[in-house]
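Structure first, sequence second, as always.
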């Protein structure tokens, strides 16, 4: 089975930490040239040095703030017009704050929709011509298991993630004939700063200790533990590779078996 990404260029969003950073490392290990994307330039520079030292290649970074779609459009457009083309795009952005759907402000929905779906669309539209020209494209969206079953107290996130999943399936139908696949990876509870925030929030609201909250959450996972960022990254890397050429338009949970649906 060919899992090599040698000769491929990948744009990985949210790649200063968590799943995005783990994905960048796996891609580089498999031979890809990786462009890191995030808003923290200092952290991007640090990670770029690590990447170049561990897996030498033509790696780079791009500063982009997904809360400002117009700025993202200008940055990525300029980057592509400078001659950069990408075989792989990983859309990965931190989720909206926790809270019930019925109490969320309408501005929270609009902000999340913009940060996730609109920014994803901007990136796809800019990278798509190059993918079509090269006859190879892999778009992988890191979403959430809430696409299968909504998660309690994540109202805005559940809503927007569902929209991104439907957008992805539509793109998969439209782009399959160009050698481009569009798939979603749905992480379960994974050891990232996002999970830490969720545990902190539950601890404050319930009065339970963080350890009690963690134990309660892992008890719902057949694997009996939280996932590790690199375990999510491995699934993303497979979907980005040549061996996944006939996998298109699917949403794959990587959650230790927690999601209670097929």
């Amino acid at each position: 089975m060919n899992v090599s990404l040698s000769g491929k260029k990948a744009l990985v969003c949210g790649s200063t930490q968590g799943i995005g950073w783990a994905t960048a490392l796996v891609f580089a290990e498999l031979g890809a040239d990786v462009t890191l994307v995030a808003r923290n330039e200092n952290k991007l520079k640090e990670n770029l040095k690590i990447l170049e030292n561990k897996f030498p290649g033509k790696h780079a970074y791009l500063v982009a703030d997904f809360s400002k779609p117009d700025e993202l459009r200008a940055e990525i457009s300029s980057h592509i017009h400078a001659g950069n083309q990408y075989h792989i795009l990983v859309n990965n952005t931190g989720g909206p704050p926790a809270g019930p759907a019925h109490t969320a402000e309408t501005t929270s929905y609009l902000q999340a929709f913009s940060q996730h779906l609109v920014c994803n669309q901007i990136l796809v539209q800019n990278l798509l011509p190059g993918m079509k020209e090269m006859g190879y494209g892999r778009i992988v969206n890191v979403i959430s298991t809430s696409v299968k079953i909504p998660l309690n107290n994540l109202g805005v996130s559940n809503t927007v993630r569902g929209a991104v999943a439907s957008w992805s399936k539509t793109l998969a139908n439209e782009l399959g004939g160009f050698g481009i696949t569009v798939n979603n990876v749905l992480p379960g509870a994974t050891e990232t700063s996002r999970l830490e925030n969720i545990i902190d929030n539950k601890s404050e609201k319930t009065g339970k200790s963080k350890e009690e909250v963690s134990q309660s959450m892992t008890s719902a996972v057949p694997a009996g533990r939280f996932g590790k960022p690199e375990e999510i990254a491995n699934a993303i890397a497979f979907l980005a590779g040549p061996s996944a050429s006939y996998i298109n338009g699917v949403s794959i949970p990587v959650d230790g078996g927690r999601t209670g649906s097929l």
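Margin note: The chain has a mean pLDDT of 97.
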